[in-house]
Design goal:
Number of helices: 9
Strand order of the largest sheet: 1-2-3-5-4
Distance between the termini: 45 Å
CATH architecture of the largest domain: Orthogonal Bundle
CATH topology of the largest domain: Transferase(Phosphotransferase), domain 1
Largest sheet: 5 strands, antiparallel
Helix content: 25-40%
CATH superfamily of the largest domain: Transferase(Phosphotransferase) domain 1
CATH class of the largest domain: Mainly Alpha
Shape: globular
Strand content: 15-25%
Order of helices and strands: HEEEHEEEHHEEHHHHH
Number of strands: 8
Number of domains: 2
Length: 294
């Protein structure tokens, strides 16, 4: 069973020992120069990513794929992520491929849907919501303790598993100590970009690498929780606004007051999100501190 275009045959062959045969293959994404498949077998599932070989940016995407694999190898060696996450990587006739273990969970926006309405203020929802935030900060604390920042903390890179815990995925943009990069970091999703990253992007040439630090992850964490709980982004601007103009608004460091838009009151949770969104990185709590704050 499969879908067109299929994943690289080299990847499927090498992954057979991991997933088992026969494998069910589902194309999940085909955009911006890369494709992602879910390969499911009797022994497990993996996510396979490969650059699109016939795209105008094929060389650039191959470089990004190589950098992502480098991030995973270095993060694993540092003890920042589980050694079970990366499954394998290799070359194929179209470029590079990378496989990671499949994480079975719902994206944060989808998972928090029950909490976005006034009816979400229930005894079962409150500890579930804070548990997601706590487990998310535990994941980040492990990275931050080794000097690494995820640098792309956002709702689509955070999955909530059936047991109510957060799983962090997609480490392609991670920034670490003694960073050796093939592709410069220039921020990630605009809506969860920390003010200091926005300022650096606006004040440097487009090819200049901007080093992200753990405090930027904390702002992005707060922004993601704010957004997915309230249904509104913490920094208001028109969706039609140019990215650089949006970054200029974010760089000012002003956010919407959470108490004015939250669907129902949860004081300690609100205070912690607000602390994460402090304009000055030095004023934000660390991930380690957050593990006991929720």
């Amino acid at each position: 069973m499969g879908q067109k275009p299929p994943p690289p045959a080299e990847a499927v062959a090498l992954l057979a020992d991991h997933t088992g045969n026969p494998a069910a293959i589902q194309l999940l994404s085909d955009r911006r120069g890369s494709r992602v498949w879910k390969v499911q077998g009797p022994r497990g599932a993996v996510a396979v990513k490969a650059n699109t070989p016939d795209g105008d940016n094929a060389h650039e995407k191959a470089a990004e794929m190589a950098q992502e694999d480098d991030r995973l190898l270095r993060l694993t060696a540092a003890g920042a992520i589980s050694p079970d996450y990366r499954v394998g990587a290799g070359t194929w006739e179209g470029g590079l491929w990378l496989a990671v273990n499949w994480v079975d969970g719902a994206p944060l926006w989808q998972a928090l849907a029950p909490a976005r309405s006034p009816e979400g203020d229930r005894a079962s929802v409150r500890p579930w919501l804070t548990g997601i935030a706590r487990s998310w900060t535990e994941r980040l604390a492990r990275m931050h303790a080794t000097g690494w920042a995820h640098a792309d903390v956002q709702p689509t890179n955070t999955l909530v598993t059936n047991d109510g815990r957060a799983a962090v995925i997609d480490y392609a943009l991670a920034c670490g100590p003694d960073d050796r990069r093939r592709v410069s970091y220039r921020g990630a999703l605009t809506h969860t970009t920390a003010p200091e990253i926005a300022t650096a992007i606006l004040s440097t040439p487009a090819d200049t690498h901007v080093q992200a630090h753990p405090a930027a992850d904390i702002w992005s964490l707060g922004a993601s929780l704010f957004w997915c709980w309230t249904g509104r982004r913490p920094v208001p601007y028109d969706d039609t606004t140019d990215r650089l103009e949006k970054l200029a608004v974010i760089a000012k460091g002003t956010t919407t007051a959470l108490r004015d838009v939250r669907p129902w009151p949860l004081p300690a949770f609100e205070d912690t999100i607000t602390a994460c969104l402090a304009p000055d990185p030095a004023d934000r709590p660390t991930a380690e501190e957050l593990t006991t704050a929720w």
